[in-house]
Amino acid sequence: EPEVTQTPSHQVTQMGQEVILRCVPISNHLYFYWYRQILGQKVEFLVSFYNNEISEKSEIFDDQFSVERPDGSNFTLKIRSTKLEDSAMYFCASKPDISGNTIYFGEGSWLTVV
Amino acid sequence: SQQGEEDPQALSIQEGENATMNCSYKTSINNLQWYRQNSGRGLVHLILIRSNEREKHSGRLRVTLDTSKKSSSLLITASRAADTASYFCATASDKLIFGTGTRLQVFP
Fold it and tell me: Which residue of B has its CA nearest to A38?
């Protein structure tokens, strides 16, 4: 069964460093998402992406965050200058179209900022 | 916010018992979805119920939706130790908004 894949599975980074989290959505999907989950807390929406542009973003998704679809398969989340509070699991997700379809999630990338 | 809120926050049962988790939300929705998350792992989609549906079954899962009360329930019948996980409801319009989750512990 097709799946969303994410790399790296775990990354440790120094505060202030830039991090890029990578995702390969399911191949025929058109809508892409990033969510995050701080340890022990709920899953929070960060951003949605469609037709090569951001369609919606949350207040968490401030100027230190950016997303990009550099080619036909990858979808990346960049955090420009990491803070301790950015430590979380980051989930990529995709769905085929705008209708009420299932959103499929990757296994997540654990980011630890030290 | 159309955030889902689950209750109970935690539930411990014996294998073979049924587990019922409830979810409430605040605004109108296109559909409501239930996800499962094993500790430290990704989110696995369990079942989707559309706003015009009242009940849906999938294997040992039964989901109900009451749009007048803005609530949903997930019933897992004949639970197994492997069902131990956190369960989240998520309401959907353009994106999913997740609730706080129910941590289910099934003892063998």
Answer: B40
**Contacts with A39 from chain B: Cβ below 8 Å:** none
Is B43 in contact with A91 (Cβ distance < 8 A)? yes
- Nearest neighbour of B43 by CB, restricted to A55, A105, A110: A105
* B2, pLDDT greater than 60: no
Cβ of A107 within 8 Å of Cβ of B42? The answer is: yes
Q: Which regions of chain A are under pLDDT 50?
A: none
Give pLDDT, residue A20: 97
Handedness of CA A68, A70, A72, A78 (dihedral sign): negative
Q: Is A91 in CB contact (< 8 Å) with chain B?
A: yes
| Overall residue count recorded for chain A in this entry | 114
Q: Do B35 and A105 touch (CB under 8 A)?
A: yes
Per-residue confidence at B4, pLDDT binned at 50, 70, 90?
low
Which residues lie closer than 8 Å to B91 by C-beta, 6 or more apart? B2, B3, B4, B25, B27, B29, B31, B32, B33, B97
Instruction: Give the whole-number percent of chain A exceeding pLDDT 90.
Output: 78
pLDDT per residue over B63-73, tens digit each? Answer: 999 999 999 99
pLDDT at residue number A100 = 59
The SS3 of residue B23 is strand
Helices (H), ranges, chain B: none
CB B2 within 8 A of CB B51: no
- Nearest chain A CA: its distance from B46 CA (Å): 9
